Amino acid sequence: MKRAYCVIAACLIAGAFTACKEGGDSLEYSSISAYDWVQANVQLKQNKQAVMWFTLFDQIDNEAAVKGYQKETERVDRYPASIFDNKFVWILVNNRFEIRLTSEDKSPEYQNTEKLKGFLRRFDLAGMEGYSGPKLSGEELRKFIPKLK
After folding, report:
1. Long-range Cβ pairs for the range 137-144 (8 Å, 24+)
2. d(CA 106, CA 115)
3. Domain locations in the chain as residue ranges
């Protein structure tokens, strides 16, 4: 009996670790739209509750946006960031790709700066860092957004 409890406890701990490692909740896109940028709404799979939304821009030709980030003192990892605690986190990658991530007001569990930063880390930041070609359209930017399980 004692062994069964130990096995159950180990499974619960492993499950909690896996959930944290994967970003916690099971998320899906409720919509993805591509224009000159790409934007998406993210919701919980279980109850379809909207939790956040983001917009991804290629700002290669927007000098004002790039300069604005150069003045920022906050960072998410090594990227300059504009952060409004527990509401939004915006970052600039490779002095051109801007990700604006905003929590939904109706979803208090995602009104958490650290949780938003964690979701930003799921983007293909390395791919953005390595890109040096022409300006990307919204449809082309889709390749950088997180794959959700």
Report:
1. 137/34, 137/36, 138/33, 138/34, 138/35, 138/36, 138/37, 138/38, 139/34, 139/38, 141/34, 141/37, 141/38, 141/56, 141/57, 141/58, 141/97, 142/32, 142/34, 142/38, 144/56, 144/97
2. 16
3. 25-144
Q: Which amino acid is at 80?
A: P
Structure tokens at 143: 């390749």
Q: How many CB atoms lie within 10 A of CB 6?
A: 10
Torsional sign, CA 19, 20, 23, 27:
positive
- Return per-residue pLDDT of the chain as tens, 149 residues: 454 443 343 443 334 333 333 345 699 999 999 999 999 999 999 999 999 999 999 999 999 999 999 999 999 999 999 999 999 999 999 999 999 999 999 999 999 999 999 999 999 999 999 999 999 999 999 999 999 97
Q: What are phi and psi of 107, to 5 degrees?
A: -130, 80
Give, for 119, the enclosing helix (H) or strand (E). helix 113-120
